[in-house]
Specification:
Blueprint (H helix, E strand, L loop, with lengths): L1 H27 L1 H13 L2 H13 L3 E11 L8 E14 L4 E5 H4 L4 E5 L5 E10 L4 E6 L10 E2 L10 E6 L7 E15 L5 E8 L11 E4 L3 E9 L10 E5 H14 L5 E2 L2 E6 L2 E7 L4 H5 L5 E5 L4 E5 L5 E6 L2 E2 L3 H9 L8 E7 L6 E6 L2 E2 L1
Parallel strand pairs: 7-12
Antiparallel strand pairs: 1-2, 1-4, 2-3, 3-6, 4-5, 5-6, 8-9, 8-11, 9-10, 10-13, 11-12, 12-13, 14-23, 15-16, 17-18, 19-20, 19-21, 21-22
């Protein structure tokens, strides 16, 4: 009798164990999947789309840390002191470990490190930078396998009101996602290094210190810009941020990677806006504009014993067109000159003497490359 009772109890214990195991597997399996389905069902299509974009893109965003050596000129020994800087970057070439960021994030850095999504730090080297467009390119030294990279989008097709996402490291908080819309296009602002940036995307997606160099994405997670600046009195996000459009970056990125810089034509002149249009204010002695015969407002006079400068707008050259494209101000002239490709290609100017009614002539300038 005791043996039979023992067998029954053993059988009951065995059945209980099996039931417990099945229940555990069920808890870990079906209910989890069911719960996930319930969660998805409770979200809107836009919410789920944003979640999916973040999951697919966030590991391509890196945290950039730099060390710059600075010294206080008022210190007697003028010892260099290390200063740490932080920012964001986005991997655009997973195989080579190429990271796109801002020039002002990595400019003058003596040491660069990136932190990947797994929390590991890697040394990075400077590949190239361009202060005029605030673009910087770095490369992870000995990159690990299976890095994630972003997909390029199309910034030329953007519309005001279009949804955008920004991922970065504001205040050192890694891979933070913010959401907003394209607030405006073709904005002009001054970069943190002082250069004038044109054609920027304005967004109300929250961008704070540390977001610089991070990606601005469309609703499908494609890269449409690199976040570069905010407009704020306090230094914190005020709902107005700016990004460099990716299409302009893509045009110069191969050259930047290959040579470390972007070759641009140098005209050897200074321009000024007048009520008649852009006018040549000064030319560099022996420079391209001087050699081409352009006449400036400010001209040198005198001989080896007595020299001076006169200013005369009546005889100065007013610029009418650049390579057959009409211009109305100095900014247009500068933009068209920058687009000259190759950089040493002769530039055809139509100028008029003194005013729009002045004598017209053609001038061919052969720019230097810098």
């Amino acid at each position: 009798m005791k043996v039979r009772t023992h067998l029954v109890l053993s059988l009951i214990a065995f059945v209980f164990s099996v039931v417990t195991l099945v229940a555990a597997l069920t808890i870990r399996g079906e209910p989890v999947r069911a719960r996930d389905q319930i969660d998805r069902a409770s979200r809107s299509a836009d919410e789920q789309r944003t979640i999916d974009v973040y999951k697919s893109v966030n590991e391509a965003v890196v945290f950039v840390t730099t060390i710059t050596l600075e010294y206080d000129p008022f210190e007697f020994f003028m010892e260099y002191q290390p200063r740490e800087g932080t920012g964001s970057g986005v991997i655009v070439d997973a195989r080579r470990g190429i990271v796109l960021t801002n020039n002002h994030v990595i400019g003058n850095a003596h040491r660069i490190e990136v932190t990947l999504a797994d929390g590991k730090n890697y040394k990075a080297s400077l590949v190239g930078s361009d202060p005029e467009t605030d673009i910087g390119v770095i490369q992870i030294v000995a990159p690990p396998p299976n890095l994630s990279a972003v997909t390029f989008g199309d910034s030329t097709a953007l519309e005001i009101g279009q949804s955008v996402l920004a991922i970065g490291n504001p205040f050192g908080l890694s891979r933070t996602l913010t959401q907003g819309i394209v607030s405006s296009l073709d904005r002009t602002v001054k970069s943190p290094t002082g250069s004038i940036l044109r054609g920027l995307i304005q967004t109300d997606a929250a961008i704070n210190p540390g977001n610089s160099g991070g990606p601005l994405l469309d609703a499908d997670g494609r890269l449409i810009g690199i976040n570069t600046a905010i407009l704020s009195q306090s230094g914190d996000s005020a709902g107005i941020g700016f990004a460099i459009p990716i299409d302009g970056i893509r045009k110069v990125l191969p050259e930047l990677i290959r040579t470390g810089k972007i070759a641009r034509p140098a005209m050897g002149w200074a321009l000024v806006d007048t009520n008649q249009g852009p006018m040549v204010f000064r030319t560099q002695a022996g420079g391209p504009s001087d050699q081409a015969g352009l006449v400036a407002i400010e001209r040198r006079v005198g001989n080896e014993f007595l020299r001076g400068v006169i200013r005369d707008t009546n005889g100065a050259d007013l610029i009418v067109s650049i390579n057959e494209q009409p211009v109305s101000d100095r900014a247009q002239v500068e933009d068209l000159i920058k687009q000259n490709s190759p950089a040493d290609k002769p530039i055809r100017l139509i100028v008029r003497q003194g005013s729009k009614r002045g004598r017209e002539r053609e001038v061919i300038v052969r720019p230097l490359v810098r």
